[in-house]
Amino acid sequence: MTVQPVEEVTVPLKELLFPSIVNVAVLSADVDDETVRIEARSTVAGAICPGCGSWSRRVHSSYLRFPVDVPSGGRRVVLCLHVRRFLCPVPGGRLPPGP
Q1: pTM given for the model
Q2: pLDDT tens digit string along 10-65?
Q3: DSSP 13-52
Q4: Which residues contact 99 (CB under 8 A, 6 or more apart)?
Q5: Closest CA to 22 of 5, 38, 44
Q6: Which of 35, 51, 81, 99 is the most exposed place for a label (fewest CB within 10 A)?
Q7: Cα Rg for the chain, rounded, in angstroms?
Q8: Is 54 in contact with 87 (CB distance < 8 Å)?
Q9: Is 3 helix (H, G, I), strand (E, B) or coil?
């Protein structure tokens, strides 16, 4: 059995699993008899503050998200997505008032 390097496997996985999503890197994919587990992370460099519209690259925090997905080939799919929140660069910047 020939084992492919991780880079050769993750590039087709990204194209297969996230064809229309930019700024996502697939870090690993593990498959067993019951589960497909994919670990990915956001590669976006920054974000626009929804309150003031300023661009920020300063990371406020990071966390994991586990979007629910449908089974694939009879296996449960687990997507572990590493994402970051960015801090508004404007002193006193905050979200606009809610509805």
Answers
A1: 0.59
A2: 555 556 666 666 788 888 888 888 888 888 888 888 988 888 888 999 888 888 88
A3: HHHHH-TT--SEEEEEEEE-SSEEEEEEEE----EE-TTT
A4: none
A5: 44
A6: 99
A7: 17
A8: no
A9: coil
